[in-house]
Design brief:
Helices cover about 50% and strands about 20% of the residues. It is an alpha+beta fold and about 180 residues long. The protein has two domains: about 5-95, no CATH class; about 115-170. Helix 3 crosses helix 4 (about 95-145).
């Protein structure tokens, strides 16, 4: 990170207009900027209050280069190509920071997916337990009906036996 005396010479910045589509379409870059308090729009980026920009001199041709410092210390590179109308802006972060964010996003999505799967399994297991309760109730009703065939009773007993063994094998928090 740059030393504070350098940044005292910087100018406050609140928005960059005409941001290149590649920046706003990059999920990693968008996630990183949003996590640091920026608001991403279709072709602009709004920075949190206290963000500073310092031009890097000398200029070469039509390209202006700046270093942007967000209040939380994130440092970005900003290139503005004035030869295009409207002038296009490109933001950059260090490769290491970009890769860290990419890993964080993919890990976060995997965690969310795993939690969703676990919740689905838990709900299914609760339904299996509820089904067993209903089967036991049905068996009690059948015991009082003389029209039940022995084969029906055997099938129901087998299903209940399998169900009860399955439920007994589950962790105690599920059943």
């Amino acid at each position: 990170m740059a030393d504070k005396t350098f940044w005292q010479a910087g100018s406050p910045i609140t928005v960059i207009e005409h941001v290149d589509e590649a920046v706003v379409a990059d999920a990693v870059m968008v996630s990183l900027l949003q996590r640091h308090g920026c608001v991403i729009r279709a072709s602009s980026i709004l920075f949190p209050a206290g963000t500073l920009a310092q031009e890097i001199l000398p200029r070469w041709g039509w390209t202006e280069k700046y270093t942007i410092l967000l209040p939380d210390g994130l440092e970005l590179g900003w290139k503005r190509d004035r030869s295009r109308q409207p002038a296009r802006s490109l933001l950059q972060v260090s490769r290491q920071l970009y890769e860290q964010e990419r890993h964080t996003i993919s890990f976060g999505q995997r965690t969310v997916n795993e939690q969703g799967i676990l919740m689905t399994i838990q709900a299914t297991l609760q339904e299996v337990v509820a089904l067993g309760v209903a089967l036991h109730s049905y068996k009690l009703q059948l015991e009082h009906q003389p029209s039940v065939l022995p084969e029906q009773q055997e099938v129901l007993d087998l299903v209940l036996l399998l169900h009860d063994r399955f439920v007994a094998s589950l962790p105690s928090s599920t059943n």
